[in-house]
Each structure stands twice: as C-alpha cells, then as structure tokens.
From TrEMBL:
Protein name: Cucumber peeling cupredoxin-like
Organism, scientific name: Sesamum indicum
InterPro entries the record matches: BlueCu_1_BS, Cupredoxin, Phytocyanin-like, Phytocyanin_dom
Residue span of region Disordered: 128-151
GN (gene name): LOC110011750
Domain Phytocyanin: 22-126
Sequence ranges of Pro residues compositional bias: 136-151
Amino acid sequence: MMKAVFGAMFAVMLLHCAAGQTVHTVGDGVGWEIPPNNSFSYSNWASGKTFMVGDILVFNFMTNQHDVVRVPQASYDACTQDNAIGSVITAGPANITLDSAGNHYYICTFGRHCEFGQKLAVTVVSSTPGGASPPMSTPPATPTVPATPSP
Ligand SMILES: [Cu+2]
C-alpha cells in the first residue's frame, strides 16, 4: 500500500523534474580532481549553488585516475569509504542524479586524494514548487524560501 503510494509519488516527481533539472558540473573547469591550488575547494564551488532533487552532478575525471563514491558524513569527514552508499563509480565522467533531499557526500577513493581535498558535500533541497506538496513528512506551513537552519 505505502509502497504503491510512494511509487506513484516518485513517478510524478520524475515527471516534474524532467523539465526543470539542472546539470551541475562539479568543479566547473577544474573537474573532479585534487584541488590544484589553495584558492579552490569543492566547498567553495558548492556554496551559493542550489541543488534540487532531480538535479544531476557531473564528475569529470579520467577513468583510472580518480573515482567517486557517495558516503555518509562520518566517512566523508574521515576520508574513508566505510558504509559507502551504493558502489564506487570508476568510469569517468560520471553522472549522478540527486535522488533525495538532505546532505550528500562524495569522495574520491584513490590514494590520499580525499585528504588532499577531493571531496564534495552538497545540500539537496526538495524541488516541490509549493503547489502539490506531498501529504507526509512535510510541514504544510513551510514557505518555499530556503530557511536558515536554526538549532
Ligand atoms: Cu582522485
């Protein structure tokens, strides 16, 4: 029952997103690399951008020189692939669709690349445009303006 409802919602969501999805090239011209200098970081790249459910991250890298895997925050902080979410993507460039709201963390597992800064955290927001809000888990009175998180 719940599964069917969720499936239907997901299908609707996909239809909605097909038109409005944004493709984000991670690192822009730098691509998915060890940051080449101190003035570049993936957190700087991500800051000020809005990532919506359904958007696509493109990790531009050469196969066999880097890879990308989604990990939980603890593994991102520690630069390990413990408890990886899904499998390591070894072939570049890799397109990853942001399939859920929340914080998503990605690292490269090659050598010490992650420790050298090849790691990305993005905050993904729900793309529901206000009109058809899902009946569950979303407070009805929430405005569409991104709220500043208050502890
Ligand atoms: Cu790497």
